[in-house]
Amino acid sequence: MAVSLAFWLLSDLPSAAQEIARFIGHADFLRSVAFGPNGDRVLTGSGEGVALLWDIATEAEIRRFVVHVGGVHAVAFNLDGTRLLTGGSDNIVRLWDAATGAEVQRFTGHGHWVTSVAFSTDGRQLLSGSMDDTARLWDAATGTEIRRFTGHRDGVTSVAFSPDGAWLLTGSIDNTARLWDAANGTEIRRFTGHGDIVRSVAFSPDGQQVLTGSADKTARLWNVATGAEIRLFNGHGNEVMSVAFSSNGAQVLTGSWDDTARLWDTATGAEIMLLTGHDENVNSVAFSPDGRKILTGSSDNTARLWAIPEELLPITALLDPVESAATVIPPAPDLIPIQPRTDVLALIIGNHRYQAGVPTVDFADRDAEAMHRLLVERLGFPSSNVRVLSDMTLSQMQQWFGTAEVPRGILHDVIPSDITELLIYYSGHGVPGPSSGRAPSPFLLPVDGLPGRPELTAYPLDTLLSNLAGVPVERVSVFLDACFTGATPAGTLQTSTSGSFAVGVARPDIATNVFVLSATGFEEEGRAQMAHWLTEEKHGAFTWHLMAALDGAANSNGDAAITMAELHAHVRDALRREAFSGRIGPQSPTLEGTNDEDPVVVRLLGDN
């Protein structure tokens, strides 16, 4: 089947119409489109029951899947692009081998059309939504139904996995979107406010927000933790059929029955770009993995590829691909096998983009991404046991960890009974706060915090550690790539002071079941050090060497068990070598809480 591909010089066109490719081959309207994870392939599903896999570079149809009687309503790629999903009017979900076109598995049980499908991040589970008013979770390997999610009063139109796989999101003809616990099937939260059918739902990349599109002609942004509506995207002249987040969450995309797609600024709700050219309804939209291109599927039987002008891209998307590519994990010596830790939950925080004129933490987002990859890819953490929280505000920190007055936050209530340990990692600013007879108190600075008023706008480290001690686990390990001096390698956080402003802070109070490894020393060490960055590796120096230590490099005594003390010793010596070489200034990490116990963090598998 031929593909018609039209190119224009981007500089010759207004920002409203930068179509760069057109895929023609379907004999009926397109209901669903998806980008492959490498951005080089796209998948389209249509009303004639056919799904087509396309190669963008060669402009060719790679493979044709004649799959569903009555029409393909939903398509999806898994994370590595080796498997495809389709769902259709025959009430069936099908799993395909992308390379051979062979049907791998079939999922049956829905009593009506399958309207939406999704892969979990690890590809082991599938999610489907149906006009039978249910969503269902499936085992990808066996085809068996794991769990059924019931509660909607009408058909389920759209489904999505949270990035960490812990939560599911559904949209329905009953005008609501709902958040579910993937592990037990209970409804956690309901998002209400749309005046008509919720046609499409999506999670933000950090899992903290959800986006919904509705037949009421609007899209809405919601806070996952509270269920509150954050923002309204209003401008379409007909039903919003499809919504998507860019890979960095800075932009959202909507497709509508007004024959257009629209690009919006997530933070402000402003419309950035209008995409016109389709002759009929836009039923499905998707972002390319790098956030630079848009794919649309329409009732005019075509899918079209659009380029976002560089002047409209968020700053992070303008970085050189090498700069913004997935982070590199420091290699372990001889790639030592590591015993998986399925009994640990990990919460990773990367505070990168600060507000109110506060300098960014250059590599905090990369630190968080790399730590997530290390835990899942090398240390054997189930992906559902690891959650990344990016650019946390004070309100979000209080919701998750509680306050001094209300110490029980969200985290306390989401610990499964088989979890014995908790790992907390933080990369971001710390600041000194008011003292109470000692040196200044340490505070973690949320992205909306003011360095000059930490007592009002920052989160006390003492409160965090005290509240973590009350979480129902046996042990909590905390890793802090932050200093509390008020100074950074980019300059002071206190705009009214000189760049040399830096103070020491008091040692935090530590409960018996909490262990803290921090990037710098506290006041008792007589130092006021900064947490330095490694510009070549594009990571915090502490984080870079901590990752190597966790990955086996800290096993100095060869006993196949890496303890907190061994992590501390390895990172301390590595930072001393960095300082001696002149790459960073003096930086002495400190370990707190190991007076009576030196807990094992990583166990290696090997001869020892």
Task: Give your account of this protein's structure.
- The protein has 608 residues and is mostly beta strands.
- It folds into 2 domains: 23-311, YVTN repeat-like/Quinoprotein amine dehydrogenase (Methylamine Dehydrogenase, Chain H, 7 Propeller); 343-603, Rossmann fold.
- The protein is 13% helix and 36% strand.
- Helix 3 (364-378) runs parallel beside helix 8 and helix 8 (541-553) packs across helix 9.
- It is globular.
- The N and C termini lie far apart (59 Å).
- WD repeats lie at residues 23-64, 65-106, 107-148, 149-190, 191-232, 233-274, 275-306.
- GO terms for molecular function: cysteine-type endopeptidase activity.
Descriptive terms for the model:
disordered N terminus, Rossmann fold, mainly beta, 43 strands, 9 helices, 608 residues, Methylamine Dehydrogenase, Chain H, four-stranded antiparallel sheet, six-stranded mixed sheet, 2 domains
Helical content class: 10-25%
- CATH fold group of the largest domain: Methylamine Dehydrogenase, Chain H
Read across the widest sheet, the strand sequence of neighbours is: 30-29-31-35-38-42
Q: How many separate domains?
A: 2
Largest sheet: 6 strands, mixed
Kindly name the structural category: mainly beta
Q: How many β-strand runs? A: 43
For CATH, the homologous superfamily of the largest domain is named as YVTN repeat-like/Quinoprotein amine dehydrogenase
Shape: globular
Runs with pLDDT <50, length 5+?
1-15, 316-326, 488-503
Rg (CA only) = 25 Å
The overall pLDDT average reads 85
Strand content: 35-45%
- The end-to-end span amounts to 59 Å
Please identify, by name, the CATH architecture of the largest domain: 7 Propeller
